[in-house]
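hiii so my PI (J.) wants the whole complex modelled not just the main chain, which honestly fair. so below is everything: two entries, each one labled with what it is. i double checked the lines twice but i was tired so who knows lol
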Amino acid sequence: MSTLLDIRDLSVQVGETPILKSLNLQIGAGEVHAVMGPNGSGKSTLAQVLSGREDYTVTAGAVTLDGQDLLALEPEERAIAGLFLGFQYPVEVPGVSNMNLLKAAVAARAKARGEEELTAVELMGRVRKAADALKIPVEMLKRGVNEGFSGGEKKRNEILQMLVLEPRLAILDETDSGLDIDAIRVVAEGVNSLRAPERSVLLITHFQRLLDHITPDRIHILVDGQIQASGGPELARELEAEGYARFQPQGHS
Amino acid sequence: MTASMVMDNPRAQALNARAARERWPYTRVPDWLQRSAAADDMPRAPQWNAPAGWQAFDAPLTDTAETDPRVQALHAAPGEWNAGETTLEIPPDTQGTLVLWRHGDGVIDHALTLSLGAGAQLHVVRIATLEAAATVFEDIRVDVAEGAQLHWHDYNLHQGLSHVDLRIALNGTRAESHVDSLSLLDGRSRAVLQADITHAAPHAVSRLTVRNALAERARRSMRGMVRVNRAGQHTDSAQICRSLLLSPQAGADMRPELEIFADQVQCAHGATCGELDTTALHYLRSRGLDLATARRLLLDSFAMPLLDTLPASVRDAVRPLAETALARLGDHLEAQV
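here's the output for the full assembly
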């Protein structure tokens, strides 16, 4: 199986504070990986850095997506290369409808890839299908992006965008936090429906409960900016029982 | 400047007349106003023509059905001084839309007095599309009687200087005043709003919503004074100012103020000032939108709420103007990088 995302010795700092310390992570095409870790371990930093957020400084290391140097690309170029980040805190953009954002995002991809643009009918069909699957009323899509949406609605809207944009690699940053059990199930079904041999998913989460519905191929424990342990799905259950204490690096516990 | 130069220069004459009357002694007259012609390198203001079929401004409002807007277009050619005044009475229980369009490259000095009868509903849309050497002074007074509603929509999409004194008296019970002001400015343009809203009767409502997106050396000054008289019990009032500074040289000076002499009132006021939200920009870019498109969407998002409140008959005419101005602001951001 070919490697889709390859992170080698990635070190990142915010200001003068090192957050990620020589982190290594490989995700094969078609795989679902989960990164778990306590607060402040660097999980969200990892997601933001991969998406190209400017406030983080990469001090060492390399990241490739399908062989392409990800760190050399602008955020929008990463998106067009097939990366999608589901935000932990999706942003409200009042006055710009969800539909218009999707239209602009799909058009940008078509333009960059030299493909023909989707017709309005084709796009609407794709959006309606995703909205139905996620139980999002189509009327909501006429409203401003995330405008007045509840926390759960915002997270479902992220998954909707993901389904419409069909990324090669979807990174979901704590998409499960703030969701009730039913919403988690709906979100998980959305993610599972995207699973395909050429597509990969990176789930970033605190808790095991999302993993009850999406079975990952690999779980990584991120503590203090490094992957301290990796394993199969059983690792999540161990964590739930024992906490992160035993994964603390030497000299910390 | 010698006396004869002043006599020859209508702009200087107008400014001196103003200073003598002390209507606004605080406006610093920019140097470029003294120049006799517009600089060639100033970007042009968006042009606009009232749609065909819109009626003469002082045609009477007689029925309660929404009719075509009435347009007052004031124009001053370079070197020209267009001064005058208009008084309009809006009969009780009528409704209508007035459009005040200010354009040109000279001096406009105009007074407008409006009186809304009980139960009248009036939308006033002020559009300023001025050229770089234009100067506009407006002295506007509105009396609002019982149950009447004034909806004031103000669009500064211009170069040059615009100074508006807007005095609104809510004289009757449940009178309402809703003022929306959107300024999309660049170059060395300057827009001043002196809003003075008096609650002189109980249960009156006032809203003052100001949004400014300012590029290059543009400046926007606003003083919003809400006065609640002793009679103004159960006043419901809010002033909200938001400014986007798109260049380090742009400036916003927002002063929402309150003067309250009644004890049962609800009055809110606030002002914020900042740049485009970097998190929101990143969010849009992470969806594949390039930086220019993402900025443009955020600018639209900032401005559009103040167009949505327009009556439908005017919205389609004003929106393209705002879009032109927004596109220009977007271009300035592009050029900065």
